[in-house]
Amino acid sequence: MARKVTVSKEVILEAALAMLIRDGYASINIKSLAAEIGCSTQPIVWHFENMEGLRMALAEYAREYADKKAAPKKGNAIEGFEHMGESYVNMAIKEPNLFKFLYLGESPLGKPYELKDISGAKANEEMIKNIAELTGLSFEQIARVIKSTIIYSHGIATMLATGVYKAPKKVIMAMIKNASEAFLIKERMGSNG
User: pLDDT tens digit string along 123-160?
Assistant: First the structure.
């Protein structure tokens, strides 16, 4: 009697994420995913019911994957913010399909953030507070610097992910750092004058 082979939810999501990164979101459907795994469509349907259930689970899984890569390392808040930015640029360069899925509207979860929430999210409050202490600027000033830096970085990352702009990562990170420093100077000048 043949042994029943089971395909776990984790295996399915890992394969779907690999397809997303390699081939883009449009390449994923239940049949193509089953072929990627080497199984029938039955385990996918059993775990996710339909394509919509798979899409939602993949969107959460992809977001968790990206969040783990971008999680700030131990160190000061400025270094943590720089690490987050570098992770974002790395994704745009090395995993452009994932970047487009998460940040350019392909994900069924919707837009990753609203403009008004970029620097106001609860998750960023501690980082903003720590950077404010390190720089001597107010919480509101640093929130504006972070918001401007994220918007600037998103523009460059979008150009990278879509192939409109190409440059070495070192050059891109220097551009972002220079822009962030300019935003800091603007805030310092605004508080002194």
Answer: 678 888 989 999 999 999 999 999 899 899 999 999 99
Instruction: Quote the tokens at residue 53.
Output: 């259930």
Output the DSSP codes for 15-37: HHHHHHHHH-GGG--HHHHHHHH
d(CA 48, CA 54): 5
Which tens digits make up the pLDDT trace of 47-74?
Answer: 999 999 999 999 999 999 998 988 776 6
Rounded CA-CA distance 139/147 in Å is: 12
Cα–Cα distances in Å, from 179 out to 3, 92, 129, 149?
A: 60, 18, 21, 7
Calculate helix-pair angle for 122-135, 77-94, nearest 10 degrees.
120
Q: Tokens at residue 65, please?
A: 């994957």
Q: How far apart are CA 87 and CA 14, in angstroms?
A: 20
How far apart are the C-alpha atoms of 78 and 137, rounded to whole Å?
13
Q: How far is CA 95 from the centre of its chain?
A: 10
Measured from the Cβ of residue 10, the count of other Cβ atoms closer than 10 Å reads 10
Residue pLDDT, tens place only, 97-114: 999 999 998 888 876 655
Specify the DSSP element, H or E, that contains 9. helix 9-23
Contact indicator for 23, 101 with CB cutoff of 8 Å = no
